[in-house]
């Protein structure tokens, strides 16, 4: 008799096992936000001397957007990035992992400017030419920045200052920190392609199975890269923030896809991919101060808030068991599994749990209970109409489905708006709420139905006994729809 439920229970058992495995030690697997466990606070200043006057008013916002995009690509921490004053950024990073902090600081402080240059054929390693080019580095740098700030369609090769024909970059430093071999590259517009044309970037492996960065050009970038790689036999240097991260010989013309390979670690590849996806900074921020901060809310506030959530959850459990009895027990089991799923997805997606996120989790508890109550009350209505329990059970689920679906959909739209336009803790709340919407819908429609239907089919539950505060109702709600519309317009 229970064989028809085997697949459902088998899937449920797999999910529970996966949750237990993913959570492990949940206290260490779930990352907490700075409001719960403290972290580091970084203050950066944005230099404006090399930024055109017309762009200075928006440069702080532009830098903030790029850095936020880089952090979003990491997906590891909920990091607050806020503008302080005209040209300062205040960045808060939760946790006390020094290695992670240094890596994230590297993402903040790197300009992320990538260019692909032709290597000068004759002067590839000539010390004389290197010394000559570097002799007037300040003037050359200023001229290069002024030229590069021009729109692409105005970068006429005939306007290139003579000192910009060639520039010097260096390979990555060795393990001892010594500067690598000098590389002289051509800098004219026809001899280089900007990384801003890169359409997509991803981590991968080269022909030796070493970590590498794969990238794809789109639109005009594909044409420019194709023209540049027509120089078969010459070398290309991929220059990131003034360092030649890769130098390779052109074997054949390439129009859309390329690869950056070298002596990279997996972490270095991930960092480069993040930089390429998020874009380059208009100016490089300078760290002014760094300090360790404690929990923003304070331990007592966090403990009291956590206790309030636990007590609220327990009250819901007690109410469901006392009022809905056997059906309430099913709802409680579904509720526990729902919470387990939410925590598991937070771990899988490496999301940071903040106090607003905990509030979002508690809200999903209410939504999950509400869905089960709708189902139980629908079943009660069908039983009052004279249907047998199995038929009432089937009809109750069918009638409640679209009500539950609509309620979850409208809440999901709200969560989406909060995520799109919110920042920091608001986004954390929206993420947890969105996850909770999906899990509560799944648990109410699949888990609760599986448990109830199998228990009814096996004869464990012969009648769904529930509490009843009001025996009969005769309120004509539809006759009041005009008043309801007016009130809705006023309130919304």
What does this structure look like?
The radius of gyration is 30 Å and the shape is elongated. It is built from 14 helices and 15 strands. Strand 3 (80-84) and strand 4 form a beta hairpin. Helix 11 runs antiparallel to helix 12 (389-421) and helix 12 (389-421) packs antiparallel against helix 13. The protein folds into 3 domains: 2-32 and 296-471, Multidrug efflux transporter AcrB transmembrane domain (Multidrug efflux transporter AcrB transmembrane fold), CATH 1.20.1640; 39-109, Alpha-Beta Plaits, CATH 3.30.70; 114-280, Gyrase A, domain 2. The strands form 4 sheets. It has a 6-stranded mixed beta sheet. A 4-stranded antiparallel beta sheet has the order 3-4-2-14. Strands 9-10-13 form a 3-stranded antiparallel beta sheet. The chain has helices at 6-23, 26-29, 34-37, 56-74, 98-109, 127-134, 137-148, 220-228, 266-278, 299-348, 355-384, 389-421, 425-457, 481-491; strands spanning 31-32, 39-45, 80-84, 88-94, 114-118, 166-171, 182-186, 192-194, 198-205, 211-217, 235-240, 243-249, 257-261, 286-293, 352-353. The mean pLDDT is 80. The chain has 492 residues and is α+β, with helices and mostly antiparallel strands.
């Amino acid at each position: 008799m229970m064989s028809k439920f085997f697949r459902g229970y088998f899937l449920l058992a797999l999910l529970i096992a996966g949750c237990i495995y993913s959570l492990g030690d949940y206290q260490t697997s779930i990352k907490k936000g700075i409001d719960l466990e403290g972290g580091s606070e970084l203050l950066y200043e944005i230099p404006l001397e090399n930024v055109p006057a017309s762009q200075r008013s928006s440069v702080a916002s532009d830098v903030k957007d790029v850095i936020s995009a880089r952090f979003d690509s990491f997906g590891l921490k909920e990091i607050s990035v806020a503008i302080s004053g005209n040209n300062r950024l205040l960045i808060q990073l939760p946790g006390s992992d020094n290695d992670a902090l240094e890596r994230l600081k590297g993402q903040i402080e790197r300009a992320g400017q990538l260019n692909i240059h032709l290597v000068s054929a004759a002067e590839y390693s000539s010390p004389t030419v290197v010394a000559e080019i570097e002799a007037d580095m300040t003037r050359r740098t200023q001229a290069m920045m002024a030229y590069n700030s021009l729109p692409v369609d105005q970068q006429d090769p005939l306007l290139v200052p003579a000192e910009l024909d060639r520039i010097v970059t260096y390979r990555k430093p060795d393990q001892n920190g010594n500067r690598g071999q000098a590389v002289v590259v051509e800098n004219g517009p026809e001899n280089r392609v900007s990384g801003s044309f890169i359409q997509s970037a991803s981590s991968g492996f080269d022909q030796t199975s070493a970590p590498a960065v794969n990238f794809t050009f789109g639109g005009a970038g594909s044409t420019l890269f194709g023209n540049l790689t027509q120089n078969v036999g010459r070398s290309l240097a991929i220059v990131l923030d003034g360092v030649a991260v890769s130098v390779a010989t052109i074997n054949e013309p390439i129009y859309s896809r390329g690869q950056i390979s070298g002596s990279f670690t997996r972490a270095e590849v991930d960092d480069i991919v993040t930089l390429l996806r998020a874009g380059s900074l208009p100016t490089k921020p300078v760290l002014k101060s760094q300090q360790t901060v404690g929990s923003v809310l304070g331990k007592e506030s966090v403990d009291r808030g956590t206790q309030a959530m636990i007590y609220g959850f327990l009250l819901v459990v007690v109410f469901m068991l006392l009022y809905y009895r056997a059906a309430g027990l099913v709802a409680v089991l579904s509720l526990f599994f729902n919470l387990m799923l939410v925590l598991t997805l937070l771990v899988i997606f490496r999301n940071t749990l903040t106090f607003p996120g905990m509030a979002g989790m508690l809200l999903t508890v209410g939504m999950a209970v509400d869905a089960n109550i709708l189902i139980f009350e629908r079943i009660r209505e069908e039983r009052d109409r004279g249907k047998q329990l199995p038929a009432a059970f089937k009809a109750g689920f069918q009638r409640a489905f679209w009500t539950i679906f609509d309620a979850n959909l409208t809440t999901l739209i709200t969560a989406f708006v909060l995520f799109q336009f919110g920042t920091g803790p608001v986004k954390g709340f929206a993420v947890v709420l969105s996850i909770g919407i999906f899990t509560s819908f799944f648990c109410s429609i699949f888990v609760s139905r599986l448990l109830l239907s199998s228990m009814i089919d096996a004869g464990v539950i012969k009648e769904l006994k529930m509490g009843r505060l009001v025996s009969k109702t005769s309120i004509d709600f539809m006759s009041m729809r005009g008043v309801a519309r007016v009130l809705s317009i006023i309130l919304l």
